[in-house]
Amino acid sequence: MREVSVLGVGVHRFGKTGDDVVGTKSVTELCRHAVQMALKDAGVSWGQIEAVAAASSRFSGGKGWGLNGNDVVEDIGSTGIPVYNLSAGCAAGGNAFNVGYALVAGGVYDIVLVVGGEVMPKGMIQTSGVEEATDPEFLRQRCVGMPGPSFWATLARRRMFDHGTTEEQYARVTVKARKCSVGNPFARFQKEIGINDVLASPYVSNPLRLFEICPVSNGAAAAVICSAAKARQFTGKPITVATSAVATLDFSDALPRGLAGPVPAGPSFHTEAKAAVMRAFEQAGVGPRDISFTELQDNTCYYELAFPEEWGLCEPGEAQTLLESGQTTPVGRMPINPSGGFVSFGEATTAMGVWQIAELTWQLRGQAGARQVPGAKVGLAQTNGLGGNATAAILKR
Amino acid sequence: MAEKRSSGVEGAFVEEGSVAGGSFVPALRVPAVPGLFADEGGAKVFGNKCVSCGTPYFPKAADCHNPHCQASRMEDCAFSGKGVVWSYSVADFPPPPPHKYDKPFKPYVIGVIDMDNGLRMVGQMVDPLERVRIGAPVELVIDTLYHEDDKAYTSWKFKLV
After folding, report:
1. Does any CB of chain A come closer than 8 Å to the CB of residue B128?
2. Portion 277-316 of A in contact with B at CB < 8 A
3. Mind listing the domains of chain A with CATH numbers?
4. CB atoms < 10 A from the CB of A111, how many?
5. So where are chain B's domains?
6. What tens digit of pLDDT does each residue of B52-65 get?
7. Does ipTM surpass 0.95 in this model?
């Protein structure tokens, strides 16, 4: 395997349909902005891109077939290059990065573009797109009605029982996240919020409140990656991809994703995420305590507390203490989501894994402004998606 | 819950006390998805079990998913009975399709239940949030989920005992 570098990154600021940021822009326009920004950042022309690894969306573009990479190539230039459209629910961006990374590391291509973008329908994400009794997700939604927020709320409720986490502590995660987003030019929300405002927001799924759950957003992200040898032709300070890993749900997962699972179950509530992160640690030869900062998938603030514990970044039950003592802020000893996270960006589902690569790159270059993690050397990114998909990437300078 | 009697159609019951056109007429009770559960002779869901390793499945699995199982040998099973609440949440807003519900929407509790039969199951709770606790004992019931075309569509749910 060859060493792989991130040469350039680009993001279209996240927003909501009709606002001043994304307005009525199509997913193609959002992607065009992100791709051109990444090409410029990399100092690479479109003609030098040898292949595209794109996140497949079920919500926008892609001719309804998830052909989102083909949309980008048609829009920017039909150079005849191979396009890989990767589908993995909300983990699709991370999956596209993984495939792009593998293609470069394996010597198939020297320079690859990774891209993901979304224009999301408003409201709660409709998780099942089929009406078939053979589809477990359809059965779960028709016979029970357990949308994403209720899945997260079930985890949050169990954590309150297991670790004594309070609703105030969940609210404090949002307060911290939104404070990080101030001055982040790509975040949808860039204003601080008080704990009373969070606690006054209505329950979406008790015990989780509106401001503790990420909304859906429109946005796009792109990254130009290449072999380390090639990178030296463009820059003296490339960011290195220490590794990229993908995993799916394990039999021992504790919370059923369909209608039922066996008990006793294992201790992990997200075996796919844990497996991807553990695999990444192993492949990169780094341990959880070597990580300077983490960008993880906080669909709700519960994850900012639970995931660092599941992955060994801190002890079980310790994350809320670290939160309250300020250790999860960009200047703390375990910075989590210095970008402001999904809670500040909203979820442009399939763009998220690529957006995280951009965030990690800016942090490791020291270009993250007010949210900069001082002396950041190693960054961890993680996404998960419907179907039991998860991805992890470790970048270093 | 309303009294019910068998309508003579398998899996279908008549729900007494539904109001239509100003007079009480029984609504035919039909499963929201056929073949998954039944109410006759006590609430039960239809799954299967690997007799090699004992892993239960609902809905039925074609083969055992346990990576440590040496030989997948599946046998049909009707699961019923009792369990305890492992965790729970509330649908405070109506879920998107393909969920269906009666309007106006009423928030409901969703339980994740550790059943005595070895399944950790998800399902709606018939009880209000104020009464639900982790560890509380529950039983499986069949109850109405929504009404459509003068029929009451049912699903499995859990009820505190």
Report:
1. no
2. none
3. 4-124+213-396 (3.40.47.10)
4. 19
5. 4-43+80-160, 44-79
6. 999 999 999 999 99
7. no
